[in-house]
Amino acid sequence: MFIFKLVSYLLGYVVILVTGEAPEKFVNMAAGRGIFLWDVFRKSDRAIMMKVRLNAVRPLRHIARRTRCRFRIYRRRGVPFHAAWLRRRKALALGAVLFLAALYLLSSFVWFIEVRGNEQLSAVEVLEAAEEAGLCRGVPKWNIEAGRVEAKIQEALPLVSWTGVYIKGTRVIIEVAERTVPGEEDRRPAHIVATKEGLVKEVLVLDGYPVVKEGDTVEQGQVLISGEIPPPAEETTPSGGEKPPGDVSEAERQPRYVHAKGIVRARVWYEGYGEAGTVETGRRPTGRSASCVSMKF
Superkingdom of this entry's organism (predicted)? Predict the structure, then answer.
């Protein structure tokens, strides 16, 4: 039935009101001649309203004369009537066509560009790199080469490890993934000091001079690994005598300052205070259950 109504709407149909002494004869004769009528209902004893296709209206005139009835077109529906209405209003039809054409044309351009995933880089830097590859506001979508834009962004911005360009309507989304660049290492001379009191259990020196050893007790703020490396002890000659002072350079006599590195593990004690009653009352589930039957009024 839906397909029949759709076809009727495309071909056009009318709602007619049949009046006369015997409108039933009008309906029976039309059905007998193969004219399809639908949505037939009685308005009164002498009037029946129904729907019929536009190409069947002319044959109904002969049937109306044979049955001594009259019919009047009550309502017109379908594409042919809309087309006729538009032909009478050519300016309106032309404006609708121009509006649809302008809407399609404007939707074929890029008007919004969004950058996602940038934390260290600014969106302006990414947009400038994309513009060099031909991606900017107002450019036609058919002129955008996503692969070329992605390669240009990665080439212009070494901090970018991956780029994705997606076109969604009039908006272009640029997703970037940035490389993780390690920060510059602090090389200023510094000591490693204890943050708590404890008993040293292990000392591992990577750079610097160890001040404490395993088994020492340290206090908070005490230097554990010094960033000042003292000069080496005076060497002896093969004959057993000390190395002449003139053979030791001035640089070897001076201490060397570094940024101390290492690991010092210690046993640390913590003190706490709390109060509790001598007798405590609590609940502990036993797993037992009981059931009873009662009646309430």
Answer: Bacteria
Backbone phi and psi for residue 290, each to the nearest 5 degrees, phi listed first:
-140, 150
**First-residue to last-residue Cα distance in the chain:** 61
CATH of 11-82, one of 3.40.50.2000, 3.30.70.260, 3.90.550.10, 3.40.50.720: 3.30.70.260
Measured CA angle at 55 (ends 51, 61), to 5 deg: 75
In sequence order, what are the residues at sequence separation of 6 or more whose Cβ sits closer than 8 angstroms to the Cβ of residue 262? Answer: 192, 203, 204, 205, 206, 207, 208, 210, 224, 225
Q: pLDDT digit string (tens) for 250-262?
A: 666 788 889 999 9
Looking at domain 112-178, which of 3.10.20.310, 1.10.3720.10, 3.50.50.60, 3.10.20.600 is its CATH number?
3.10.20.310
Nearest to 245 by CA among 230, 254, 231, 234: 234
Closest by Cα among 196, 191, 221 to 208: 191
Cβ neighbours of residue 192 under 8 Å, at least 6 residues apart? Answer: 208, 223, 224, 225, 260, 261, 262, 264
